[in-house]
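Q: What structure does this chain adopt?
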Amino acid sequence: MVVTLIALVALAVVGGGGVLFYARTQLEARSAVHGNAVAVEVDPGESLTSVVGDLDRRNLIRNGFWFAIYARYRGLDDKLHPGEYLVDDGMGASAIVAKFLGAPDLLPRRLVLTEGMTAVQMAAVVGRGGFGVTAAQYLAEARNGTFAEPFLIGRPAGASLEGFLFPDTYAIPAHATAHSIIQMQLDAFAAQGLTALRGSTQPLNTYQLVVLASIVEREAHDPPDRQLVAGVLSNRLAAGMLLQVDASVLYGIGVVGRSPTAAELQQDTPYNTYLHAGLPPTPIANPGRAALTAAAFPAQTPYLFYVSDACGHNHYSTTLAGQEQAISRYVGTPCS
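A:
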């Protein structure tokens, strides 16, 4: 196969015609005939060096060094798109690069995980997404998988990855695994979640901030409420008051999407913040960047109470009497 000579002029200058001839041979197809196509996956953000290494390991190119030089000359370094590409060893460098410059043979599927979802809810979305990963596989990996991220240090023994499964929209390549999907979420937490927590004004460690942010995510329904809710919870922690968070109570009994009953408020679980002081033992959801920022930098107010109306807006009070008046006014009143 003839390869564009212009790409190799510089090489000829350095080593003469011998180098040029050798380079051309290294860019030829490995086989004189086309074999079975192999699926080569390009992950979102994957580098050309990584892709060339994959091609080399799978014996699809003759020489990774010369292929990389040629691919960079063709501009592939800046034009790698995630997806699955079918390549065989009967294709030379020019054909392979042209393949990667074109549209993928199979595009990655989109996975949308929203702020405030629990690991169980995320597992259900993954299981329905057609990624070849079941909800049970995802949940097992979230609970028992092995991951080496430094920010996971400090979790209670036996705690899952709840709180660190960053909610976002992900491009999931073909043949993904539960481990690889969760790794993408942890990478996103490292890039966005830790940034949101950096420089926190709180006397809390990273894990405690994530726990607080998970409560904020479930309790603040409007963006302006996030920092105010974080401020109320921080004030209550500082004053040694029970947090009395309904969302935490519900998490402890495996329920979401409604208010707890009187009986459930008395049910003794580690997450019942009406019975147990301080933060719950683990996050109760997976917070997004805004909730993490609110937890790290709460509003400085005298508020110690809040109640939500039927429209989802919070109303704040500094005294128990004020809270009781707000409950009487807003709870049970239809949204207008």
